Structures are given as C-alpha cells and as structure tokens.
Input
Amino acid sequence: MNKGKFIVVDGLDGIGKSVVLDAIVDYLRKDKGQRVLDLHEYWEERGFHPDFDNKENGHPNPYYINLDDYDVIYSSEPTHVGIGKVIRQEVITKNSRSYSANLTAECYSTDRLVLYKRVILPVLNAGKTVIQSRSVSTSIVYQPIQSELQKEGSLTIEDVLVLQGNKLALDNAPDLLIIPTIKDVNILFERLAGREKDDNCNFEKIKFQSKIKSLFEGQELRKIFEEKGSVVKYLDAGISIESTKEQAVDIYKEILEN
Output
C-alpha cells in the first residue's frame, strides 16, 4: 500500500491557517467525495486519541476507529488531549506562570511524539491523508525566539530538533508545508481581537510575531524541510479570505494531484 499524503499548514497567529485548512478539507470532502474524520470533534467527545488497531481487548473499545471508514484525518497541534490540553490551558496561556522555552519545547515535543505514534503514522501507513495545523515547524520557529525574549539562555534550533518528538516528526516530514504570509503584522492583531479562541496564547504579542515572521519566511526553515523531502509553499493571506481559499486549493492540486 502506498503511504498516505501529509499536509501541514503553519504560520503566525491569526494569519489564516484555519481558512487554508478548511478550504482544503472542504475541497476533498465536497469535490472529491472523501470522508473526513475531524479529530477536534473526536477529542472533544472522547477526551483521548483514537485507537486504530484494537477493536476490542476483552471488552468494547470506546476509542476504536476503523480507518477503512475514512479517507482524511484533520488534526492540529498542540492536541486537545493529554499534554496537549495542558499546553493550551497552562503552558502557553497568558495567565500562565511564564514557563521557560526549554520546558515549552519539551512539552510540545512530547505531545507531538504521542500524536505521531498514535495517530499520524498509523494513518499515513494506511494510505490515508492527514491535514494538520502546525507541527515541528512551529517549535523550530517559536521556541528559540521565546528563549531569546525571556533572556533565560539560548535555545537553538538544533536544541529543538534533537528532542524525541521533534526528531520523529522531522523524520516523517509532510509532503506539503503551506505557510500563509502577510505584509503587515499589525493586521493580525486586528483579526485576533475579533475572533473566538479556545486558548489565550501568550505568543500573541506584536514583538513576538514580528520576530517569528522572518523565520517562517526565511531560507533556514525552508531548507530544513526541503532536505527531508517536503515541498514548501507560501501564499498571500493578506488579499482576502476568498483569495486565501483559492490559493490553498490551487497549491494542493498543483503539488499533490498533478
């Protein structure tokens, strides 16, 4: 069986990642007739990751999901269960106790390790498609800048990449990494002020977002992923929502259908 397709969308807070993701998911569902499992809904209902292997283990398994029933899995990081839930509710919240970049990186890596072992790799090995918001690309960009601004030592990209979950993720890099861009970071904060969120992230500060913008758009991140076989594509998220959707689907078609 051929390995499945893996698409990651990453970028600044408020840049329009969900617009890109939803456009691709809607295209696959409505135009291609593919069946989508939204992990966000599953996580909210079950409070745990799905189990694709064990239908029963002496008794009914409440977490079992038959992958034959789906073509696409829609995921995100951090997850909404286990340590991912702790990250969202404690580690990165504006009301948190200002956890260090090293601790934050380790938490993300652990959440990522569990997600990849329990969900991403089984799904891809089954020949299915994974579409995900954020991945190790986030940690590569965010935690070194977090360390710099906290002035608590210097956490490098190399330090981030040796963490177990990050190494696993990069060894299984996405086929396609889409990074929405925008010219003026100030526009993001107008968007963030007007939307509902399920976390209250302490990275949503103009100084922080201005610094990571150049990293998301720079050559170092691109090189890291291209050396692992990923195609890295940028789209202009500053035109309109409809344009962002159109660009997202066009990129998907160009890279993964042609």
